[in-house]
Amino acid sequence: MVEQKKYCLFLATLDSEFVKKTYGGYHNVFVSTFGDEGEHWDSFRVVEGEFPDEKDLEKYDGFVISGSSHDAFESHDWILKLCDIVKKLDEMKKKILGICFGHQIIARVRGGTVGRAKKGPELKLGDITIVKDAIKPGSYFGNEIPSSMAIIKCHQDEVLVLPESAKVLAYSDNYEVEMFSIEDHLFCIQGHPEYNKEILTEIVDRVHGLGYIKQDFADASKATLENRGADRKLWEMVCKNFLKGRVPTN
């Protein structure tokens, strides 16, 4: 009998009312994007101080760290604890997929620098340019490595200085580090492969309603979604291949 694969999701965000009502929570958003039938996925709400026992880390085949409204450079107890756990997982060579805040946490743990984005926040669908030379054909990107990928962006911080030994896999007009990897077990993405148009639109409306962004910024964000979507299927394939150690056949 094949042993059931187990994955662990560190949720660094609370569920919005919209996500709860529409998807039953972010756990379901992530598992529907990165999970496959027959797998077991646990999630821990690290933003509320909920973590797995360290002795249980070994049983997981891979980990995902979500985005957050918190800054990855803060010193809240839960962020420091998350950094400790990431350090242990790194030593264990466990696969970790870091998304947005998670991407920045991994950079921080590995000695990089994270701070406010020099060119300001982003809330939009945008294109990132893939550094083809940094990606081996036959890796989790498959043999057909795209020259760019569309992804939903939702952040105000960025990786300012990469950790030593990190490889930049993608950049954009505004950000030098859109995606990076370290060895074969850490894969980090500044954008949100798990987000769709509805999730971003609701976030834009919510932060606009709270007065965090102006009307013209909100309108510009929504305009990016008008005529196209993110490369969700491609992101799904790449992230699943990474987490599951698959070599794609495309």
From TrEMBL:
Signal peptide: none annotated. Residues 46-196 form the Glutamine amidotransferase domain. One of its GO terms (cellular component) is cytosol. It is found in: Cytoplasm, Cytosol. It comes from Cardamine amara subsp. amara. Pathway: Secondary metabolite biosynthesis. Belongs to the peptidase C26 family. It holds the Pfam family GATase. PANTHER family: GAMMA-GLUTAMYL PEPTIDASE 1, GLUTAMINE AMIDOTRANSFERASE YLR126C-RELATED. This is Gamma-glutamyl peptidase 1. One of its GO terms (molecular function) is peptidase activity. GO terms for biological process: glucosinolate metabolic process; proteolysis. PROSITE patterns: GATASE_TYPE_1. Keywords: Cytoplasm, Hydrolase, Protease.
